[in-house]
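pls ignore typos typing on phone
4'-deoxy-4'-aminopyridoxal-5'-phosphate + seq
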Amino acid sequence: MNLLSDRILNMSTSATLEMAAKARELRAEGKDIIGLSLGEPDFNTPDYIKEAAIQAIHDNYSSYTPVDGYVELKDAIIKKFKRDNGLTYNRSQIVVSTGAKQSLANVAAILINKGDEVIIPCPYWVSYADLVKLNDGIPVEVPTTIATDFKMTPEQLEAAITPKTKMLWYSSPCNPSGSVYSKEELRGLADVLLKHPHIIVVSDEIYEHINFVGKHASMAGFEDMYDRTITINGVSKAFAMTGWRIGYMGGPEIFARACNKMQGQITSGANSIAQRAVITALNESPSRVQFMIDEFKVRRDLVLDLLKDVEGFKTNIPEGAFYVFPNISYYFGKTLRGKTINNAADFSLYLLEEALVATVDGGAFGNPDCIRLSYAASQDQIVEAMARIKAAVN
Ligand code: PMP
Ligand code: GLU
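k done
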């Protein structure tokens, strides 16, 4: 008998966090690693948000919080959903949690039964497939390529649906491809789903504000999808608050109640001080964090420009988030400095060892022909990283 459960033995380690830990270790050994592996803004949390947290400490927000979040935070989330997304929710439809990751874990746990299928367009964010498997579900990966800007078409969705399909689960803007589904494209997917009323949609919108092409579209914004869509969001990305650990879900009350029950047995309510800070973050206009988004766009253009000069890197034009996801299969079967590259994992490791640049193997996102680079790094670091990559592959 194994000491550890099958559940944990069958789970893969989060590749993003693993690579970030490896880069940290190498840095501690004195190696000059440029980290383009972790999807985390390099900005500090804005002062007006920090001040709210400091005030909350002085005001003694030190007790357990309601499992589903402070009422004032739920009200700020309700206001945000209305203001930014045109979505109407009431307090019983919102659950605050310890990061969007926990909201996603809750949703998987409350909806998936053994053998249920979950359609996940590829590439997808690392944790989706494992959260599905953890709950005995079956991830049904729908591959996409640069040719469709890494977006799933309505025909592909239709072909993937079976009587066992429980959910469609995606992020837009997408981690890792940066693709953004337009309202029309979402409508195309919604039209397919209308024929299959048993399917629930999980729409991960955590990169909503980091969008370089215009208005963000939400699946729940369609009246005929509202009752079967769960919208996930959080403050980690747009507000540079990854360590504060606050995320939330909005959706039909039956799902919110179930998430509340799940969280009540697992973590209880999210951190009190962080919740108070997020009330301020969400109540203020998103224009206060626009400077970070403008900077991400400059960096996106810089990365794309520099990558043009690197042999064998093919990319889409990411329209949101802060990642590029180049196809590097050109190198498969080739030998660089005596090291044979057979897959994206080999290539990512090669870049770590030879260019001292940390990236993530695309296999972890369901596409083993690609690697992911996060451009949530300074322009100087980006320029240096691209120069090193270019030198390492020449
Ligand atoms: N969804 C996506 C697509 C992400 O990239 C991340 C990054 N961490 C999360 C969810 C989880 O975010 P959080 O920090 O709020 O848990
Ligand atoms: N979402 C970020 C990433 O994709 C943070 C790491 C994680 O939570 O997995 O790199």
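Residues 6-44+289-393 form a domain with the Aspartate Aminotransferase, domain 1 fold (CATH 3.90.1150.10). The pocket of glutamic acid (ligand 2) is lined by residues 14, 16-17, 38-40, 101, 126, 175 (CB under 6 Å). more later
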